[in-house]
Specification:
Distance between the termini: 37 Å
Shape: globular
Helix content: 10-25%
Structural class: alpha/beta
Largest sheet: 8 strands, mixed
Low-confidence stretches: 2-33
CATH architecture of the largest domain: 3-Layer(aba) Sandwich
Number of domains: 3
Strand content: 15-25%
CATH class of the largest domain: Alpha Beta
CATH superfamily of the largest domain: Alpha/Beta hydrolase fold, catalytic domain
């Protein structure tokens, strides 16, 4: 799900000096007839001469403190974005966006009110993939950033230009793209943090080109390759991690008190808190009696999203098998992991929470327990606020005389921040055929069958919200985790006994608690065997509560790597073989 509380996938601050060199104001009259062009975009030949495929976007904002490309989000403060697909776009070739071009959050460009704006164009480049299925698709290849269209290296963009929309000029606004986002330097290894990259044969075959899996590994204190000590593996699932986070070998440098307000948690001084927690973890990690284990954070960014959801998929390929049978054994072999299911554990929050539970369910013998915090919908009868099996439309509750919009996000007091229709419209404008690189599109890419065009078959129409019942049934049979557990409990129940732990705030901002409640009802009904795990709720807790009943979320979210150790220790004591070669686990 969306790890950031309010602004999904945005960059926080861009120096306002970016705007001091802006050209003079361009005037443009509101277009009301004959559908004339509003914007005319070209790009400099110095950026390439071979012709580009991709999604051409134009962003429009009022705020001059950040570039418009960093102001497109689900909040009420969002800028405007419009887009179109381009194929073999050549330098100096004019591409136009017309007055009736669909936009977000307004209906079309023609609905822009008179006034002064900042505008910017960007091309989100697509590569061509010849899939093993025989389909040819065009998708954005990740460039080491974790599928962020507004900061992906090799994407090209224009400098922001100030314009005035008025009645004085009818010519299209001409924008020239002159900039390219530079490559990202890889993070260097340190004593404790290692970065591993392997070619996946499974994924390469699916995608028709070399594809790689990467992992950030936190290595135990005292690790020696020739030692007989073996280490349990803690798989910390979540969104694209550039490197191991929350681990710092030096004391905090941020001031304890500052004026920097964190709107998500309603506090100041959060930089210091994060640094202190990271340093405290380092001190624990290297202390004499701390349990020794490996932590792995997986980089499985792909052409649809910043991670694969760690399962096999018709549209993303066999990521579940590739991670479980290629990447993890490779890491365990390098760093003396246990190398067997009893020595592997899964945890994470939001997207990582769904992954932790899904991987445990789909590979019940290969892992020894999951701790799924605030998981993405694990029962599609509560796909946030939509029942995919009964509702006809995702965006509206409809009666005989009235239609009511469904909410997409709320705050901790229940106040609605945005609706599903708006969240999905933003994605549709950023990329058709499920190519926005964002939340609803990745759920669709993971869970759906491939359509006739090779792209994920839509679960619902992005503009109308009408649900495809056939696709919903496919989702149920293949990815509805509660349904699958209930359907197959007589086959997998024994292997899941004692391994399922789920945590969620009862005021989750994305209504994820609804699916947890439905799943708990099933789990508590299980017999032969009883699931023998834990489901717990945080009273009035928002996204992403992870089971800590004593500390606020802004603290507990920083402690995933230590939060479940007592439960893991109990589990290992019950299931580890007598001669286990573990260190500092107390049994």
């Amino acid at each position: 799900m969306i790890v950031q509380f309010l602004f999904m996938r945005t960059v926080n601050t861009i120096n306002s000096l970016l705007f001091t060199a802006l050209a003079g104001i361009v005037f443009f009259s509101s277009c009301t007839s004959n559908n004339p062009p509003v914007f005319e975009i070209t790009y400099d030949s110095a950026l390439g001469a071979e012709g580009f495929d991709g999604r051409l976007l134009v962003m429009i904002s009022k705020d001059s403190l950040k570039e418009p490309r960093f102001q497109i989000n689900d909040s009420h403060e969002t800028g405007v974005v419009v887009g179109k697909n381009v194929n073999q776009w050549l330098p100096e070739q004019k591409e136009q966006l017309l007055a009736n071009t669909l936009a977000y959050p307004i209906e079309t460009l023609n609905d822009l009110e008179e006034g002064n704006y900042f505008v910017q164009a960007l091309l989100h480049k697509y590569d061509t993939f010849q899939l093993a299925s025989g389909h040819t698709v065009q998708l954005p290849m990740d460039q080491g950033e974790g599928q962020r269209w507004n900061s992906s290296p090799k994407n090209i963009y224009s400098k922001p230009v100030k314009i005035a929309i008025g009645k004085n000029h009818s010519s299209p606004i001409k924008i020239k793209i002159t900039e390219e986002i530079p490559p990202i330097a890889p993070v260097e290894d340190s004593k404790y943090v290692k970065h591993i990259k392997i070619k996946s044969e499974m994924l390469s075959e699916f995608w028709g080109r070399p594809m790689y899996l990467q992992a950030n590994v936190l290595v135990p204190e005292g690790f020696e390759k020739e030692s007989k000590t073996r280490y349990p593996l803690m798989v910390f699932h979540g969104h694209f991690p550039k490197t191991i986070g929350g681990f710092r070998t030096t004391p905090p440098t941020a001031p304890k008190e500052d004026d920097k307000y964190n709107s998500r948690f309603g506090i100041t001084g959060y930089d210091y808190i994060q640094q202190k927690e990271a340093y405290d973890f380092y001190q624990q990690w290297t202390s004499k009696n701390f349990p020794r284990f490996l932590v792995i954070e997986i980089q499985h960014q792909n052409p649809y999203y910043d991670d694969s959801y760690a399962v096999n998929s018709a549209n993303l390929g066999p990521y579940g098998d590739a991670i479980t049978y290629e990447l993890i054994p490779h890491v365990e072999k390098m760093f003396n992991g246990v190398g067997e299911g009893w020595g592997r554990f899964l945890y994470g929050g939001s997207t990582g929470g769904w992954e932790a539970l899904a991987v445990q369910v789909f590979y019940p013998k290969e892992y020894n327990g999951c701790f799924a915090a605030c998981p993405d919908p694990i029962d599609f009868r509560a796909y946030t606020v939509v029942d995919l099996y009964k509702d006809e439309n995702a965006y509206y509750k409809e009666g005989t005389f009235k239609k009511t919009l469904r909410p997409g996000m709320r705050d901790g007091k229940g106040h609605i921040k945005t609706q599903l229709i708006n969240m999905n419209r933003r994605e549709y404008i950023l990329g058709d055929n499920g190519r926005s690189g964002d939340q609803w599109d990745i759920w669709q890419a993971v869970y759906s069958p491939a359509g006739e065009n090779g792209y994920p078959k839509p679960i619902w129409d992005k503009l109308s919200g009408d649900i495809d019942r056939e696709v919903a049934n496919y989702w149920r049979e293949n990815y509805d985790l509660r349904y699958i557990m209930e359907r197959d409990w007589d086959k997998i129940g024994e292997d899941l006994k004692g391994k399922i732990n789920i945590y969620c705030g009862d005021m989750d901002n994305y209504y994820l608690n609804n699916a947890v409640v439905l799943t708990e009802t099933f789990l508590e009904s299980t017999e032969n065997p009883y699931y023998d795990g834990e489901v717990a709720y945080g009273n009035n807790a928002e996204h992403c509560w992870n089971g800590d009943q004593e500390n606020p979320n802004h603290i507990s979210r920083l402690r995933y790597n230590t939060m479940y150790l007592d439960k893991i220790k109990t589990r290992l004591k019950e299931t580890a073989p007598r001669r286990n070669a573990l260190e500092n686990w107390g049994f």
